């Protein structure tokens, strides 16, 4: 399936484009390599106030490198990264950026309250510690030593760090890893409140169902480039395929089903057939043309996860065929 990658940047769902609000973050022709490995290639990207943006990509796509560049933890080999019109480090020193990262261990032998209180005290625009603990779901374990926390509780402490002050941009790297379902719901409820207050939220995640449910905008990275940028619905439409499922009685001719027109994938499990097609009408018509009588026929659009896989697989195939 051939697709055209896009690096067009918009601000869907935020009103930023119509109000003329300046970008919170801007990447301009940014490149970053580690030895012979190119992590980021000519990356152009802009984020705007009040939008919640999901950063997706397979392993090695450049997500972590892009976040490191945004936070001033790495410097680009070429190109420019601006945060609130200045360098990332200056923006962070001014308290305009809060971050929740996977890397780095938490200070041990101190209580949750002591550690979160330190973050609030150090932030130029720090919030009251009790407010931060409550928001992060930590009030009930505030007196517990940090080294006695579960993985999900540690994630909530990192979330408290990211929201310890009135930052205008919150950057989250795999924020809900290790959290249970209730904690995830609480976390994203808090993030929605942050966005309503005009803060920009950027999060990298492998949980595509969260990106689908939460993000105003989805950016798909592939080998250091922006492959797709738009709303979740636009990303799904970009994949161009639909799902067809039905059940068959009698013997199943796998070869005949595999030769159906417009097919991008077929899976047969027992009596159930699941198909991905770029032209559902043609495929269904051909099914009946084989003399088959499908039961429980359903035609639906791809979910974000299936669309993500279709887009990235197609990009990989196009690159390999061009070699």
Write the layout of secondary structure elements.
Elements: H1 16-19, E1 25-34, E2 37-47, E3 52-56, H2 63-70, E4 78-83, H3 88-93, E5 97-100, H4 112-122, H5 129-135, H6 151-162, E6 169-173, H7 181-196, E7 200-204, H8 208-214, E8 217-222, E9 225-230, H9 232-239, E10 242-247, H10 254-258, E11 263-269, E12 272-277, H11 280-289, E13 295-301, H12 304-322
Parallel strand pairs: 3-7, 3-8, 5-6, 6-7
Antiparallel strand pairs: 1-2, 1-4, 8-9, 10-12, 10-13, 11-12
Helix pairs in contact: 4-5, 9-12
Subcellular location: Cell membrane
Membrane topology: Peripheral membrane protein
GO molecular function: ATP binding; ATP hydrolysis activity
The end-to-end span amounts to 17 Å
Which CATH class of the largest domain is shown? Alpha Beta
| CATH level-4 homologous superfamily of the largest domain | P-loop containing nucleotide triphosphate hydrolases
Largest sheet: 6 strands, mixed
Q: Predict the CATH topology of the largest domain.
A: Rossmann fold
- Low-pLDDT stretches are 1-19
* Helix proportion: 25-40%
Helical segment tally? 12
What value does the Rg take, in angstroms? 23 Å
Strand content: 25-35%
pLDDT averaged over residues = 89
Total individual domains = 2
> Per CATH, which architecture of the largest domain?
3-Layer(aba) Sandwich
Can you write the helix and strand succession as a string?
A: HEEEHEHEHHHEHEHEEHEHEEHEH
Broad shape: globular
Classify the secondary structure makeup into a structural class: alpha/beta
Query: What is the count of β-strands?
Result: 13
Trace the largest sheet across and list its strands.
Answer: 5-6-7-3-8-9
GO biological process, one term: response to antibiotic
Subcellular location: Cell membrane
Keywords: Antibiotic resistance, ATP-binding, Nucleotide-binding, Transport
Protein name: ABC transporter domain-containing protein
């Amino acid at each position: 399936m051939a697709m055209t990658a896009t690096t067009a940047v918009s601000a869907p769902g935020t009103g930023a484009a119509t109000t003329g609000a300046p970008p919170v973050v801007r990447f301009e022709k940014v490149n970053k390599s580690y030895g012979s490995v190119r992590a980021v290639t000519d990356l152009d990207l802009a984020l705007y106030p009040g939008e919640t943006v999901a950063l997706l990509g397979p392993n090695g796509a450049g997500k972590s490198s892009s976040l490191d560049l945004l936070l001033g933890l790495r410097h680009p080999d070429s190109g420019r990264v601006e945060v609130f019109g200045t360098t990332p480090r200056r923006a962070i020193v001014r308290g305009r950026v809060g971050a929740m990262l996977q890397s780095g261990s938490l200070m041990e032998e101190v209580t949750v309250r002591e550690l979160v209180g330190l973050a609030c005290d150090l932030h130029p625009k720090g919030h009251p510690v009790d407010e931060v603990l409550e928001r992060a779901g930590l009030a009930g374990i505030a007196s517990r030593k940090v080294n006695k926390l579960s993985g999900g509780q540690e994630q909530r402490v990192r979330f408290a760090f990211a929201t310890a002050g009135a930052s205008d941009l919150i950057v989250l790297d795999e924020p809900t890893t290790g959290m249970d379902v209730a904690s995830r719901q609480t976390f994203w409820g808090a993030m929605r409140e942050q966005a309503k207050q005009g803060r920009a939220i950027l999060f990298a995640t492998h949980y595509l169902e969260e990106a689908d449910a939460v993000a105003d905008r989805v950016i798909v990275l592939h080998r250091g480039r922006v492959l797709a940028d738009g709303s979740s619905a636009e990303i799904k439409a970009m994949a161009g395929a639909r799902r067809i499922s039905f059940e068959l009685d009698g013997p199943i001719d796998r070869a005949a089903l595999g030769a159906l027109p417009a097919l991008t994938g077929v899976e047969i499990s027992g009596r159930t057939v699941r198909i991905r097609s770029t032209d559902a009408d043609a495929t269904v018509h051909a099914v009946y043309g084989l003399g088959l009588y499908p039961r429980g026929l359903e035609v639906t659009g791809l979910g974000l996860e299936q669309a993500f896989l279709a887009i990235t697989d197609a990009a990989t195939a196009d690159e390999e065929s061009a070699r």
